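To illustrate this point, what follows is a protein record of this kind.

___
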Amino acid sequence: MDDTDRQLIALLRDNARMSVVALAKKLRVARATVQNRIAKLESDGTVVGYTVRLRPEAEAHRIRAITSIEVEGHHGPDVLKKLRGHPNVVALHTTNGRWDLMAELRADTLEAFDKVLNAIRSIQGISNTETSILLSTHKL
């Protein structure tokens, strides 16, 4: 992955619906270059999908949580890959200290949230988790 790929990903994060022509103009490369790079990023698993961002009020009813994850030895890359592909994982952070990863999770119901946690805990290489449901968010 080079700087052009990183810039392309940043643009797609900001607006995944931006046309290939518009992306090419912003990156100052040919349209075909953008198409080829997007195809490569998708095929190698770097880009696993596209999503919709909602206003905070539209997500107020959703359950949000932070899950601390302990990973066994050499399983880190595999665990990260599996978590990146999970639709309920909205952010992943590597950390130091007791926990190896922090995952921000979202689900529509407690039942769905329970299934998400069970799915995450069943990933090979995850040895322990601890989850805190986020009750409210305060802007700085």
